[in-house]
Amino acid sequence: MFAELFSFLYQFADVFAFLVLSASGLAIVFGMMGVINMAHGEFIMCGAYVTVALVQAGFPLPLAQLGGAVAAGLIGIAVEALVVRNFYKRPLDSLLATWGLSLVVTQGLLLTVGSTMPGIGTPPGSFTIGQYTFSTYRMVLFGCALAVLGLIYVVFMRTRFGVHARATMQNAAIAQCLGVQVGRVYGLSFGLGAALAGLCGALYAPTMTLIPTMGATFIVESFVTVVVGGANVLLGTAPAGLLLAAIRAGLNGWGGQIIGQIGMLLAVIVIIRILPDGISGLLARRAR
Amino acid sequence: MFLSVNGPQTAGNGRAFWLAFAAVLAAALAYPVFADPYDVGNFAYLLLWVFMAMGLCLIWGYGGMLSFGQTFFFGISGYAYGVLAINFGGADGTTFLALVLAVGLSALAALVLGYFMIWGRVTGVFFGIVTLSATLVLAFFLGQTAGPEWRIGDARLNGFNGMGGMEPLNLPWLDGDSLYFEGTALYYLVVALIVLVYLGLRMLVNSRFGNVLVASREDPQRAELLGYDVRKYQLAAFVLGSSLAGLSGVLYTSWGQFITPSSVGLPAAAMPIVWVAFSGRSDITAALAGSFIVLLLFQTITVYSQQAALILMGAMLLATVMLAPQGFVLGAVRGLARAARRGRLAGQEA
After folding, report:
1. Is 0.80 topped by the overall pTM?
2. ipTM value > 0.95
3. Which residue in the set A34, A95, A262 is minimally distant from B137, CB to CB?
4. Domains with residue ranges and CATH for chain A
5. Which of A258, A268, A269 sits opposite B140 (nearest CB)?
6. Distances (CA, A) of B327 to B106, B194, B273, B291, B332
């Protein structure tokens, strides 16, 4: 009995980690700038590729993963300065611009690097409860998801940057009048979002096949988590992750992966009918 | 009520425009007489996508709803046509019954999805990502239907390899023969449908319905305060535009007697956006003409490298939003019209 219960919790933790890791970067960018970064999947892919390249160059895995996140973050800052910055007044056009970018990057990589790259394999290690065997690395990923949520909390609630960021989120014009460098806050937020996307790719790189279109695997989950979570990353992402992971893990256990994904999407479509501003909109309304 | 094809919501209302329209139509009708049958079939293939572009133009350009999920409806109808045509056997005009049912199915899907989004007040960026999520999930679902248990009647879905073996559109003809809509016959069918849909949409957007739709794009709150239930107009536009994507899907399946999940997922889902954004989303004529040009260009480059063609599509999307947010085709036409007017004024002064 305990083994079955743990098995469900393990499934739940696995899905939760996937949702939170893939969505947190997107949620930060959306919450700050109102921009949905359609190239989010490509930042994830970038993190994964850099990680694998560094491991093959002889770096230990955790260091390589950090490198993947940093690389994605730096590219993110560059992309913000060159492209996204022009579109803060036209959020719909920013979707198109980043989507165009995403097409260019994935197809360019397919053309230059080719369709697959040798992977690095999941770090070994497993533990057994009852008759079930569980992978330790999946638990590490769950820990990382919690750590990312903690990191976002600390950055936004305990640092000077966080104060500026929250002020900008509330009212960019007044924040600017009070001396906050809004442009720099936007740039850094986009960089942070890209770095978290890169971290997601870095963490999942050992478990996946590396192909230039791998970002598409993450993008549905990250979209629906952000839609359900709403505009505030601090309030929305974790509860959305919990809710969707419960739905997804239950359906996965009942009918398999594809039923889980379809069921999750249907649940999201119903949720947006009830909660148009997402969970954070609901919580913010309650708090008022 | 008098419906007019001319009005404030379409560019090109004058005599010069309609003369040009007649010339293009005449050229299109005469084309198969001079051209190689293979090229005619190929042109029919390029033209069948234009319905999806015109539908997106209605939803996005006139209705202000940025849908990334037009291939969702394309896929539903394309697969539905295949399943129905296989199960009906495809003789005695049943393929046209399959066409009607398949387009109806995508309209139904649009009605359900649109109800939840529009009544949930999903607007702006969320509209795009929810529709895209629906498309991607459909593509994942179709991709894993490889096993023999995934069959509907006699039709096997076949996962990534795609479904084939359905009859193309055909009608009973003289002497018990059937007229198959392939090659030149398909070309004339598609051209006739385009003229019908194009003129129909022009009447629609220039009617009271179109004016309210545009008003709700410009300022939904104001339109609502004037007494219109904005949601009904938006839903109607969404359903109609999505049915046109469905029509493209049916014609595509019938053209190649084949459809795969890759015509639903990425990067296929981005293509209608590229055509319409590049052409100019706020005018149906620009969407029609521009999409055809982009499709022709895309096909020409795909012969050498599919990746290069897709890179160009991405770069075109990026360039459009950075340099000409109104669209290049529409922007160029407006620029020419301005130059002509200035020239005429200069002539009068001289």
Report:
1. yes
2. no
3. A262
4. 2-282 (1.10.3470)
5. A258
6. 28, 22, 11, 11, 8
